[in-house]
Structures are given as C-alpha cells and as structure tokens.
Amino acid sequence: MNDKPDTASDVSASAPRTSGLGWEEFSREVVDFFASIKLAMFLFIVLAMTATIGTVIQQGERPETYVQEYGEEAYRWFLRLGVTDVYHTWWFTSLLGLLCVNSLTCFHKRFPSVWRSMRQDKVSVSLAFIQGMKQQTTLSLNQSRDAVAERLVKLFAEKGYRVLAKSDPGEVTVYATKGIMGRVGAHVAHLSATVIVLGGLLGSYYGFQEFGVCLEGQTYHIPRGNFDLRVDKFWIDYHENGSVKSYNSTLTVIDQGTPTTTKTITVNDPLVYKGIWFYQSSYGDAWDQIEAARINIKEKGSDKIIATVDLEWNKEKAVDGLPLKMKMTDFVADFAFNSTEKKVFSKTAEHANPAIRLAVDERSSVQSTPWVFYHYPDLFEIKDSAYQFEFIGYQPKKFTGLQIARNPGINMVWIGCTMLVVGMTLSSLIYHRRLWAKIIPGESGVTLHLGGTTHKSQIDFQKEFRKLTEKINAQAQS
Questions:
Q1: CA–CA dist 191, 466 (Å, integer)
Q2: What is the C-alpha to C-alpha distance for residues 322 and 14, in angstroms, rounded to an integer?
Q3: Higher pLDDT residue, 63 or 1?
Q4: Contact residues for 179 (Cβ-Cβ < 8 A; gap 6+)
C-alpha cells in the first residue's frame, strides 16, 4: 500500500469546475463574428445578387404583367419569395440590418484603440521598445544631447511630423507622429455604410414615389403634401435635325389657395416643395383629350364632301352655309366599350383606334352624339340626318409625366456617401507614421537610438526612414 498522497487527485479535486464557455469568451466570439470581414463580404455578395434580381424583374407591376411574361407558376413563386417588391421584404431589411451591425461592430472593436493611440502619451517609452521595431538604427554622434534633440525636433517638423520631446535624467526622448487621420479614415468609411443603409431604410419605409400624368392648364391636388400643383405650360425643344432636345414644364404650387412658388423644371432640375420632389420624367400624347380635330361633312346620298371643319376641344362651332352646329366633347385613343357598365373607355394609352364624340345640332330638329372613328369612317351613321361625318385628322394634346417623390432619408444617404468618399480618401492617401528617438549621452558625444513604424506603405516608409538617417548623419558631420 502506498502511503503517499495522490497529488494529481488532490489538485483535480481542489481546482474550480467550469461549465463550458464563459460569458466573456462567448461575448468575444459574438463580437468577432459580427465584426468579421467574411460576414461583410457575404452580405455584400447577397445584397448584390438581390439588387440584380430587383433590377431584372420589374418591381411593383400588376399581377397580369408577371403572369404574361413569366407564367402563373413562376408568379406564385415570385409572391412567396417577395421578388416583386424585393426592397420591402423582411429578409432584405434583415440583410441591411446585419450590414449595419457588422459596420458598427467593426467600428466599436477597432476605433477605441485608435482613439487611445491619439490621446495617450507616447513619449515615455523604453529603449527596448525602440530596439524591437522593424525599422530601427543606432547612431553615434559627436554632439551634445541638447543639440541633437533640437536638430531632431526641427528635422521631424520639417517633414510634417507633430513632435513631442521629454527630458529625463541622463536621456532625452523625442516622439514624432503624422497621418493619424489615415487610420481614422478607414473607420469613417465603416461608419458611412451604416449611415447610408439607415438613410435608405428611412426613405424606403417613410417616403414614397409616384408617377403623375398632367395636362397643361390643369390643377392637381397633392394629398401627401396638402397643396395643389398647377401645370402652367408644357413644351418641347427640338434640335435642328428634329430630335428632341429637352422637354419642360412650368409648375406653380398653390398652398391654401395662394400661389407660393413657380418654377420651370427640366430633366435633372426638379421642383422641391415641403420635401416633395417633382421631376420632369416623360411626356406623350394624352389618351382622353386632343387639341383639335378635322371633320369632313358629306351628303349622305351622294357621298360628296360639302364642308371641312376644324373643331377645337369642347367648343361649339357653326358650319358656314349649313344649318349645322357641331362640338367635340370626348376622345379616346384606343376605343373600347364596357357592355356591363355601358361606358366607352380607352383600353390602352396608345393611339391605336382613335375616336371622337360629336354633339351635332342639325336644324334644331336632329340632335345626336355619335362616335366617329378615325380608321372606320363609315362604321355608323346618324338616323334622320342629311349628313355623314368623317374624322380625317387631329392634333394630339401632349401630357407631361412627373415623377413625384419624397425621401426623408436622402440627406442621411448624402452624408453617408460623403463620409465614405472622405474616409476612403484619407485611408488611401494618408498613412499613419510614428518615430521615436532616444538620445543617451556617452563619453565622447551621444548615442541616438532611432525607430519607427507605419500601418501602411512599408516600402515608402523604409525609404523615408533611410533618408532621415542619412540626413541626421550628414548634419552631425557638418
């Protein structure tokens, strides 16, 4: 029997028992995960793929558009996955939220050390600290301690360094630094991603974007702004070869019944009022109004043209030499008839089957409101009338297409973009460099221990360090 104590057993029994991963280790792992570059790259790739889907597949269209283009089965999957409105789905918002968390975690993890580095006293360092640097050298100089220190301070300042010096018994330490904003720039760029994403989400959920078709001379109510918008004038400027040069709209804002502002807008020069932007987006021919129409009047029996009349929109006109008054009251660009509601409508905005409606007063005895077709002049005739009406031409009325939008997050997006540009510029063009020099008096002069470090552009810093060393030697020998 062995009477010696079981040391291993005693140590095992006395050691504290742990139950897996501790809170500090767990929190550190979580922070490392959310701050990882792998997560950032994954999010950027997935967001890029999602944005591509949102670009290829039109967003916010009517169901029949998707069914016609992709089929019913594909449309059902589109609805399940939310690809018809990608940018408002919960999973797209979650991806953007994760990107914000990733950016903020990187900032939280890395910026405090840079901030401490900017504020801490870097003069009080040991000789071993300088000798342990990658770029370091030792020089023997036949000068006094104060003279060498003064020369170093002046030389570092000429090179753009901010210099601090500390005199201790028996030695002098000089610390020089420049380009600290280069390290700050990377963190500003990290933070900019969060600002841009938050601005985008703010605009996506609390803003809106609509399209309005407006006619010259008409006033429209803007319910989201609680004011009215009047289209004073719309016109198109052409090049000499006949191509469109620009299209323009003169708009007047009427707030509480009072005109407050008037501006002529063109493409990329919008009107802004109460945070709502009115962009000149498009133009085209109206499908429910025209400027004028030309009508041939024929004798019903002989089919002989006895008069040609130009009618202006909704203005009655008496025909010279005939007991006849006419007025154009309606127009449709692509005639269609709803038999259930007994209504005429334009089934498309294209001028595929134009027709006008006339109000005819013939000798005050025959009053009718026939539809007359541009492509089918003999389709209908007026009972008891002595005339046949032929629609032979018309002048379309142009509409102006306005993009109406409000984006409360646009300023945040611009701030974030500015931060990104500034941060990338600082990070790419400015490098944080630091130099330490310790001057120790000896029997025949001083010994200078010089060391330095940079966080980027090591080759350029090596050249600069070598030139500094050569200049210090040259000054000491002069």
A1: 36
A2: 122
A3: 63
A4: 430, 431, 432, 433
